[in-house]
Amino acid sequence: MAWLVLALGLPLAALTLNVVKVAGFPLGFWTTAVFVLVGLAAIALLFAARAGGDRSGEGIGPSLQMAGEAIGSAGVVGAVGVIAAIGYDGLAFPLGIAAGLALLAMAVAPRFALYPVRTIAGFFTARYGGRWPRRLALAIAGIGSVGLLAADLRGGALAVQGVFATDYATGVASTAVALATVWLLRSLLPAPNGKGVIFAALLVMVFIPVFAYPIYQGRLPLPLFIYGYGLDDLATLEQNMIVNKLADVRSLKPMTAPFLQLSMTNFAGFVLALALGFAALPYLLGRHISQASAAPGAAVRRAALSVAWVVWFLLALAAFAVFERIGVAEAISKGIETAAIPTAMLDASGRGWVNLCGITSYSGSEVAAACAKVSGNRGFLRLQDVAFSSDGFALAAPSISGLPGYVFMPFWLAAAIAALVTGHAIMAGLLAADAEGRHKGSVDAASLDMRSVFLAVAVLLAALILAMIGGLEIPALFSEGLAIIAAGLFPALLLGLFWRRMSAAGAVAAMLTGVAVTGAYIAGVRFFPVQMFDWTGVLSDAAPGAVRKYGQLKDALLAATSPDMQVAASSALWRHAGGITNWWGLKPAAAVLMGVPAGIIAGIVVSLVKPQRLADPGESEL
Q1: What is the pTM of this model?
Q2: Buried b (16+ CB within 10 A) or exposed e, 41-65
Q3: What distances in angstroms separate CA 214 from CA 208, 220, 401, one per listed residue?
Q4: What are phi and psi of 26, to 5 degrees?
Q5: Which residues pair with 61 in a beta bridge?
C-alpha cells in the first residue's frame, strides 16, 4: 500500500499539491521529484531490515554493481532529456525506475531467491515444469531486450558523437562494435566484477556538471536543495523572452505544470510499464537476485541498497535537467543573431541534436538562410526556432549554455560507459537464461557455444537496426521494451511466486495474453498506424478535424498517379496516422494498463480450469 501511494497516489495528486510551494518548489513537483523517490528507497530499506535473513555482510559492492547495471544510458541521457523536454510529466521516467527497483526488492526478491536457479528461465522451469513456459519466457525476454539494448546503443552513439564529432550512424556502429567486444572479452577471459566501482565512477562523472551548473549560473553549489528557486528563475526568463519577442506562448513548456504532455492515465501507464518491467527484468533477476549470485537472505538487502544508490543518482539528474533548461533559456534571451549562430549550437545542430529553423546543419550560412524564410523572424534566433530532441537536449544543453568542455565531457563519458555496462548485462543475462537448462555446471562456461553466439549476434543486430532506423528516442525505446517484459513476464512471475495453484497452462496463457495485447498495440502504433487506424479508429481520441484530414490524405493517395506522388502521399498519410492512432489516447508503453490485467486474469482463469500441483522449492523454508 505504501508503494502504491508513493508510486501513483502522490504523483497523480500533483495538480492539487502544486498550490503550495516549499523552498521555491511547487509541492506537487517537489513531492514527485524528491520526496517520492526518497520514500521508495526508505520503504525498500525498511522492508530489508524487517526481513532479516543473511547477516554475512557482503558489503555494498554487489548493490553498487546492481545499481550501475540498472541505470544504463537510459537513466543517464534518457531521464535528463525527457525531464528537460516535457517537465513534470518526464518525472514518470525516474519515478518508474525507482518504483520498479523498490518493487523488486519487496515483492520479487524474497521469494525468487528461494528457488535454486540461476536465471528467470530456470525459475519458469523449476516452478512450472515442461518446456513451453521457459521457451515463451525466453522469447518475451528476447523481444523486450532488443528495445532495451537499442536504447543503450542510442545513448552510447550520442556520447560518441559528442566526443568524436561524428555522425549518428557511425556512433551507433561504433557502440555496437565496442559492446560486442566487451561481451566477447568478458566471456573468454575471467574478469573482476569491479565491486561497484563503475557505478561510483558514474556518480562522480555526472555530479561534476550537476554541481558546476549552479556555480556557472551564479548560484550556490547545492543543486539538490536550490533548484526549486531555479524553477522560478526559469519561468521568469521565459516570460521575459515573450516580452522581448524571443519566444511565443506555444513554444513554452512549463516545467512544473503536470499532465500537459501526458494525460494522468498515460503518466500512470508509463510509471507502471517501467516499474513492473524492472520488477521482472531478466538480467537483474539472474545476475543479482538468483541463488547463483546471492544467498536468499542477502538478495533482499542487495536489492534494497541498490534502490538507495539509484535514487541518489536520479535526484541529481532531475536538478541537472532544470539547470540545462535555464542555461539554454539564458543563451537565447541574450539575443543570438541568425547571421552569427554560436559554434556550440551549430555543432549540436550538425550532430542532429537540435533543429534550427527547420534544418540540421553545421553551416552557419545555411541556418541563416533557413531562418530568413521563417515567418516573423527578425534576424534573431527565437525559442520556437530551436527544436531539440529530448536525447539531444541532454547532451547539447551544457555546451550551448557556455560550460567549458572539461565540465560537460564527463557527462558524455558517463553515457558511453553506462551504455556498455548495461548493454553487456542485457546480453549476458539473456544468454545465461537461454543456456540454463541446456548445460550443467557454470552457465558462463557454456556462453560461447554456437547457439549462444548466434543468439547474441541476432539480438545485437536487431537492436542495431532499431536504434539506427527506428526513429525512436531513448525514453520510447526503453519504456516500450520494459512494457513488453512487464506485460509478458510480470503476471506469470508474480502469480508463480505468490499463488500455489498457478499452473503451467496458466503461465503460458498469462504470458501469451499479456504480450499479445501490449505487443500488438505497440507494433500497431509504431509500425502499422494506417492499418490500425482503419481497423480500430473508432477507439481513437483523435479530433474530428484530424479524422477528416486522414480521409483526405487517403483520397490523395488513391488519386496519385505517378510513383513519386504515391510515395509522397503515402509518407504524409503514414505520418498523420502515427499522430492519431491510439486507443482512448493511450501512448504505446501505457498499453501495460491493458496487457498486465489481461495477463493476470488469463493466468488465473486457465489455472482454475486446468490446475497443476507442483512442489514449491521454498516451501520448507517458508
Answers
A1: 0.93
A2: bbbbbebbeebeebeeeeebbbbbb
A3: 11, 6, 12
A4: -60, 135
A5: none
Q: What DSSP assignment string belongs to 199-264?
A: HHHHHHHHHHHHHHHHHHTTS-S-HHHHHHHHHHHHHHHHHHHHHTTS--GGG---SS-TTSSS-H
Listed by start position, the domains of the chain span 2-335+381-530+588-609, 541-580
Burial category of 259 from C-beta neighbours within 10 Å (exposed 0-12, middle 13-18, buried 19 and up):
middle
pLDDT digits (tens, 9 = 90+) for 304-318: 999 999 999 999 888
Q: Which of 353, 595, 557 is nearest to 480 (CA)?
A: 595
Closest-CA residue to 90 (of 519, 481, 469, 393): 393
Q: What percent of the chain is helix, strand and coil (3-state, nearest 5)?
A: 75, 0, 20
Helical H segments across 337-449, by residue range? 343-350, 364-372, 390-401, 405-435
Tell the CATH superfamily of the 2-335+381-530+588-609 domain. Answer: Sodium/glucose cotransporter (1.20.1730.10)
The answer to whether the beta carbons of residues 172 and 159 sit under 8 Å apart is no
Inter-residue contact 167 to 175 (CB < 8 Å): no
Q: What is the pLDDT of residues 527-554, one digit of tens each?
A: 999 999 999 999 999 999 999 999 999 9
Tell me the C-alpha to C-alpha distance, in Å, between residue 318 and each of 61, 306, 314, 620: 25, 19, 6, 45
Of 477, 326, 458, give the one whose Cα is nearest residue 393: 326
